[in-house]
Amino acid sequence: MAVAASGINLTPLSKADENFHRPTELKAFDDTKAGVKGLVDAKVNEIPRIFYHPPEDVHSAQTHIHIPLIDLEGVGNDSLKRKHIIEQIRDASEELGFFQLINHGIPTSVLEEMRDSVRRFHEQDTEDKKQYYTRDFMKPFIYNSNFDLYTAPTTNWRDTFSYVCAPNPPNPQELPEICRDIMVDYSKWVMEIGKLVLELLSEALGLNPNYLDNIGCNDGLAFVYHYYPPCPQPKLTTGISEHSDTDFITVLLQDHIGGLQIRHDNKWIDVHPVAGALVVNIGDLMQLITNDRFKSVNHRVLASHEGPRISVAGVFSTMVSPSDKLYGPIKELVSEEKPAIYRETTVRDFSVQFKSDGLGTSTLKHYKLNQAHI
């Protein structure tokens, strides 16, 4: 048996037998409140069976297509450069759904401190972290391993903490002191980046620069701070299963480890880390309101012997916050030649549907006209 940090036994793959009972082992893992980091601290040599992924989910051919790297220098004061940047963003959003940004204005020191603080939180003593461990999504600060632990078919090799900073930010005193100041500071930087990206996406659609901001795509912002410990058997599991994001856009800070891949033409493309860059990807809600003009594509993160891998995702969505605001295909993008593909929804209903479906399923399919709930 492999022993978790708390002393609870978790069955490794090589010991698989008829006595394996997934719900029991999930609860045993969850009850440690130590996450995957606890398993690494216990020096496990074999991963518990709950983390096993079918081989076809892990091994796949990769291609050498590169994610566009877009330089934002001059975007605010050079009309020719801005036009070129918008064209690059349009092409990337229509074809790959992903692009990287450099010269975005966030100081390197801020990026480094943000990554360092994620490491500090996850690598502090387990007893200090346990007070924040919860599966209550209404808490101002949430730390756990695998938000969908009890509903997903397989468990991913990562731990996460998160909080919602807009539209209703928590009292900073409710955030852990070990990472509080940089969380608040970084959120302000990302809110500005998000506003700029939404302006450029609006123009890429042929709309007023403030269009997406005016309809509320910038109203909500949440952060998830992922920690992927080194894995003793990375070919048997994954860091995050294949999925698409349910938001409008995601602004991601990743470190140098790598492992992020997107699916394109049924092949996997590496999103190679670029020093100082931010990764931006289109979410399901953006695909819905652009009537499939911009693509929300599936992506995943591989497990690795290296690590820990650190990433910080800024998620632009009001998620489950109460709102009656309806989102459907933008009228300017709908015509007889290109009729509406999706029905209207609130962000809350869309997010609840995602939580019900779980990671790795298509939330968009529920909103296709004449194809709902297929």
Automatic annotation (TrEMBL):
GO terms for molecular function: dioxygenase activity; metal ion binding. Keywords: Iron, Metal-binding, Oxidoreductase. Residues 217-320 form the Fe2OG dioxygenase domain. Gene3D superfamilies: B-lactam Antibiotic, Isopenicillin N Synthase, Chain (2.60.120.330). Its cofactor is Fe cation. The keyword Oxidoreductase applies. It comes from the Eukaryota. InterPro entries: DIOX_N (IPR026992), IPNS-like_FE2OG_OXY (IPR044861), IPNS-like_sf (IPR027443), Oxoglu/Fe-dep_dioxygenase_dom (IPR005123). PANTHER family: OS03G0690500 PROTEIN, OXIDOREDUCTASE, 2OG-FE II OXYGENASE FAMILY PROTEIN. Belongs to the iron/ascorbate-dependent oxidoreductase family. This is Fe2OG dioxygenase domain-containing protein.
